[in-house]
């Protein structure tokens, strides 16, 4: 009996020790930056982690890039982790911070960078800062590495629209709400649906509605949003908002999915445009991957969303473009060596031929750096780059809104799309949201 | 062996068996629960290194958050219909598969299977059914009920969630009912048959009273699962269309992880905990009174 007891106690203790050791171990590994030394290299191997929040599309490509990078830098090992489906980057990052295993490189949505101000290393002295197309500063410091530039507008199928206008269609011809309606009419006359509006809340809330914030006369999004928060700006009386909603009404009128507007998913809208069943949809250049699934050889381009009937208005012929995904380097839970390795990887992406190839050719993003001369391959990215180079761009206002904006006001936009509310109700939803926004 | 003389030894022996369970319970239930309550008195965005004390502000905000009470009310409505339908359907299925029909073992397995599919996967499957299959069916046969996607209409989307939940849980509750039905003593049924009781009378006066313990379990389980619903809600409607099917759990999650307001999210979670605890305790208390001895 006694023996039996002692054996059990021993086993229990052992089990506890193992558990404790396992916990301690993982901590240890991260803090010291990995203790395993590569036999081939003399220096100790530095292990860092990269949090990818751009989804499964680029996960494999990032892993391949990390392997390529390791060939040139044998003592730096980068492991790539990814956010879960539907999980926000902040949520994942805060979990990792809480468990003391913050990645050295964290890819965040642009709007969230300011939350990490006290955790992000100052990157102002990095070489690539001088080569950025637009400055990217918070409180006078460059805290984040712009991973990609993205833009959105009305995506059109070139073949379908060319046929409707009888010749090569020039998107610059669409610079007012009425010219857009004319084009819809022409397309409808050829027996094709003019457009199919996707009902995704993120698209309607953070992209479409955000156009109203970006299309302000002075183009200063932050200033306008502060006005909304303070209650000095009334969205219902705003010209850009009214113009945008007029355009939305026209879009609703010609929407192929108007019988059941909220059943149009992202995939459905992409497939319809790719197959030529609808000429246009509202979305961004990331949709190319989805379009390609239904039509690998199709050519697509962007038409700006007009916000009024003044042909000369800049916002009427500009696409919303911005650096949506940005990478910060953590300085609170990563050692100096790890931070240095992380910075080296960022530099490699911008200046190494293989890094540039990864960014532009593999992942297919539009780089935010002037020194990268590789041309994007897909037609949507080419279109964005053309607008950007010509200076025909307004702010990607979704980068400046709080994390729940897409869900709360996306729902209000859906309600409007479904015809269950009017402009006055939508405007009061927006006003109320900003009153309580943090 | 259990009744050790020495007090220390007795406690040691007890700890040997219950210790690991207590340890895990403390670590994953009790400590987070208490820490959660602690967090309701602070304002925190999940990232910031400072966490200012705000006192009762979060609780005041809970009572001012109209959307939260809307979601609670919707959840109560959902639980009401779901509990009735799940238990009703499950009891019918259980009676069917114990009635001695051919292939009843096959049917038992078949009805139970949906419960083996995770709520998320299930939601995606049914999303396809409501978005594509039902709409195609509606267009083909000119049925106006199915002509547009159920998930695009706020009332139908609510019923879509109820239907999927019933489909998911009915098989599970059926298994509990089957066990209960098999334990109804054959002799009293036989005796009542000889006394001339018809099937309906037997069901009402004999079987149902003896099944009360099973009902207590199934109603408790479905109540609790109904209040906590998240996965089906998330994968089927994502709270849409236009936020009309956001249940309480989803609202709490959104407050904490989308609005980055952990304090308020926790406070709302705590209120939700009270609602659920109250409902289940009341249910168990009242249904215990209905129990009878055979």
From TrEMBL, chain A:
Family affiliation: Belongs to the bacterial solute-binding protein 1 family.
Protein name: Carbohydrate ABC transporter substrate-binding protein
Record has Signal as a keyword: yes
Segment forming the signal sequence: 1-22
UniProt xrefs under InterPro entries: Bact_solute-bd_prot1, SBP, SBP_1_CS
The keyword Zinc appears for this protein: no
Superkingdom in the source lineage: Bacteria
Keywords, comma-separated and alphabetical: Signal, Transport
Recorded coiled-coil stretches: none
GO biological process: transmembrane transport
Organism of origin: Cohnella nanjingensis
Automatic annotation (TrEMBL), chain B:
GO biological process: transmembrane transport
Transmembrane segments: 21-44, 78-99, 111-137, 157-185, 206-223, 269-286
Domain ABC transmembrane type-1: 68-283
Endoplasmic reticulum listed as a keyword: no
Protein origin, superkingdom: Bacteria
Position of the signal peptide: none
Bilayer topology term: Multi-pass membrane protein
One GO location term (cellular component): plasma membrane
Cell location: Cell membrane
Alphabetized InterPro entries for the sequence: ABC_transporter_permease, MetI-like, MetI-like_sf
Keywords, alphabetical: Cell membrane, Membrane, Transmembrane, Transmembrane helix, Transport
Pfam family, one: BPD_transp_1
Family, similarity comment: Belongs to the binding-protein-dependent transport system permease family.
Protein name in the entry: Sugar ABC transporter permease
Taxonomy of the source species: Bacteria, Bacillati, Bacillota, Bacilli, Bacillales
